[in-house]
Each structure stands twice: as C-alpha cells, then as structure tokens.
Amino acid sequence: xxxxxxxxxxxxxxxxxxxxxxxxxxxxxxxxxxxxxxxxxxxxxxxxxxxxxxxxxxxxxxxxxxxxxxxxxxxxxxxxxxxxxxxxxxxxxxxxxxxxxxxxxxxxxxxxxxxxxxxxxxxxxxxxxxxxxxxxxxxxxxxxxxxxxxxxxxxxxxxxxxxxxxxxxxxxxxxxxxxxxxxxxxxxxxxxxxxxxxxxxxxxxxxxxxxxxxxxxxxxxxxxxxxxxxxxxxxxxxxxxxxxxxxxxxxxxxxxxxxxxxxxxxxxxxxxxxxxxxxxxxxxxxxxxxxxxxxxxxxxxxxxxxxxxxxxxxxxxxxxxxxxxxxxxxxxxxxxxxxxxxxxxxxxxxxxxxxxxxxxxxxxxxxxxxxx
Length: 372
Prior knowledge:
Blueprint: H1 6-33, H2 37-43, H3 45-61, H4 68-74, H5 76-108, H6 115-132, H7 134-159, H8 177-189, H9 197-200, H10 207-235, H11 238-243, H12 247-254, H13 265-295, H14 304-317, H15 322-354
Helix pairs in contact: 1-2, 1-7, 1-8, 1-10, 1-13, 2-8, 2-10, 3-10, 3-15, 4-5, 5-6, 5-13, 5-14, 5-15, 6-13, 6-14, 7-13
C-alpha cells in the first residue's frame, strides 16, 4: 500500500492554495476593503480551520477516499453522477489556473508571445508528472515547498526594508460589514482547494501528524497572505494598490536595496511557475481520478492526453482578455469553489455526522491506493 507522510500533506496543501491566492487575494481584498484589507485575511483563519477540519472529519468517518466516497455516501448512481460533475468542475478550475498563469506571464514577463505557447509549455510539464504517478509528483511538491517557501518569505521580508507608510493601514472604523464578510469569505474559500486531502488522507498512517500538517498549512497561508496585503498597503496607498492588476508582483518588482539587491522579480517568477505547475497537476489529478472512478477504468494515465487537449482549448476560450479573467476570478471561480469544494463536502459531513458509522456502505470500486 502507498503511504504519504504528514509533511507531504502539508506541502500539497501549500501548493494547492498559495500560488493561486498569491495573485488573487491581495487584489480582491484591496478592492473590497482598501486600507482595511488585512483584517479580512486575519479573520479568515477561523473559517479556514473549520473547512479543513470538516475534511478531516469526513476522512475519519468514511471507509473509502475521494472520489469513491461519493458512492459510499450518496449511493452508486448519484455518486457516479457526482464523480462526472467533479471531473468537469476540477478540469475547469485547472483550466482557470492555467489561464491565470498565462495572463500573468503575458502581461508581466514576455508580452507579445501567443498565449497558446505558454499553455502548451505548462501542460507539457504537468503531463510527465501525472504519468509518473502520485508518489512522484507529491515528492516534487515537497521539493517545491522546501525551495520556494523560504525564498518567498525572504523576498517579502526584503519588502519590509523599503520605504513604508504605516498610516496607510488607518482608519479602521470606515469598514462596511457587508464588504468585510464578502472579503473574508473570498479569502477563506480558496482554502477549500485543500479538498485534495479527501483523496490523500487515507494514505497517511500518522493521524496526529495530519492534523499538525493541516494547521501548519493554514497558518502558512494566513501568514503569506497577511504579509502580502499589508506590504501592498505600506508601500502604496489603498487607492493606488486597487488600480494594480497584480499588486504582489508590483511589490516584488519595486524591491531595491542599495543598488545591490534589485531585479529579484525573476526569482519570484521562477518560484511562482513551480507553484502553478504543482497546483495545476494536483487539480488535474483530482479530475482524472473522478472520471476514472465514474467509468470504472483500471488506470487514469491514458486519460491524460485527451484531457490535456480539453484543458488547453478551455483555458484559451474561457476569456477574451484579462478583464474577463478578473471576472472569472472574482465571481465564477469562487462560486465553483463554494459549490464543489465546500457545499457538497458539507452535505457529506452532515450525513456522516448523523449517520451511524456501521451504516456506511463502501463503494465497490477502485480506490486511491491502487491508482499510482
């Protein structure tokens, strides 16, 4: 049987949440709350904890991992329908991640290059990772976190050495309660990308280590997002930061220390590309497993090539320009997160909470342990 360590769970949760949030959250919060944006990030700690511990409870009370657990809790027919639903939704989420990657690179790194070139490049990197199997790409996630997270924190720490304006964090009393709730929810819901733990949780034998990994990943997420949002406000005014498409990248591009440390944005770009490879691979993997389970296939590997074509076409056609990508980021994608990654797991949580464990019927199909 395959086994995954608690640190691999931590690394997987980090790469599934932070790379996307690093570019999305600061912009979204600055638009909603202005100089109070950091408060929503701090408040998202509790909802994020509830979401992740809901996943842990589902794992403990289920006999099978995702996606087989859909059949276990909803029955064979409804479960397989939901597996097809997750195949489509997770593929769509992966396509959005690819398009966000493309828009960032095209507008900030190599403008003028056809977006299809970036998409093909990212898919070509993810393809062999998926072909190599779960154990291999999860180890790759470990390497990405070990190499990328300390560098990311170092870059953000260098930002604190720049000219800062603490008064940009004030005043606190002009917040709209509605905007605060919306901003906190939008920050928290990205943590639902930790949904992948429903697939991996059964592969870990050290359950206390899993809880520590989940808490560690949550605290890492809150810390990185809070520092990023606060830096955006300290370096720029709220009104200026709101106009930036990617405030995070603007921060990093602005860092300069004594004419010696400068142009470190290339380091960030390298780290972020590794993170986008990881989050795309993980999301794509969930989609493939869902389809495999629904169709009762012996392996997901021969599905990679045809779904790669679907991913490429979807990521190109889903938006005409960066404004439409922002609409997807602010409205459509959070809705999909809420529906697929929160509401349906919430239904499962309620089912297992009020149903005796002995009444759960295991799905008679291939489980995750046989899929590497």
